[in-house]
Amino acid sequence: MGLLVPYDGSALSKAALIRAAQFDEILEEGVTTITVVPRNNVKYARERGWIGDDDAFDEETVLANLRETIDVIAPDVTTEFVVVGRGAPYGTIANRIRRYARNHDVSIVFIGSENAGRMVGSLSVGSAVSAGGGYDTMIVSQPVPSKVKKLEEALPSEELLEEEVADAT
């Protein structure tokens, strides 16, 4: 069993990663992030802030930068990258996340990505991922500390957010 976080570097995916790390302090199942990256898709990468306006798409740099943002928040997680074709058809990202969850005996998927809207009904990857079955789905809709006292006691999210801001400067 394990906890899975679809990660795209957005504020909500970072909040989902924090929440998964908090749950892991209690459940001790291990956390994995998964990022699906369309190869050489400059527009997609720019929209997510993976590359600057004038930068070319460099897969190694994109993956290294994503891994760095993950490590700042939760250095002990496992990081998985799945690279798909540049023009991957609609639903490919959600399908890859679902497949990973099924194949790796995931117990909870923490969705906080900007794509979570498409996943849950008309939201994003959410509905498709949450429909995968075999695991629970937690939608993280606020990039703020959890109101669940026990989670905050286990791993204070404000400290993680402060570290991220300090490392970004």
TrEMBL record:
Protein name, entry field: Universal stress protein
Transmembrane segments: none
Family matches, as InterPro entries: Rossmann-like_a/b/a_fold, UspA
UspA domain ranges (all copies): 4-126
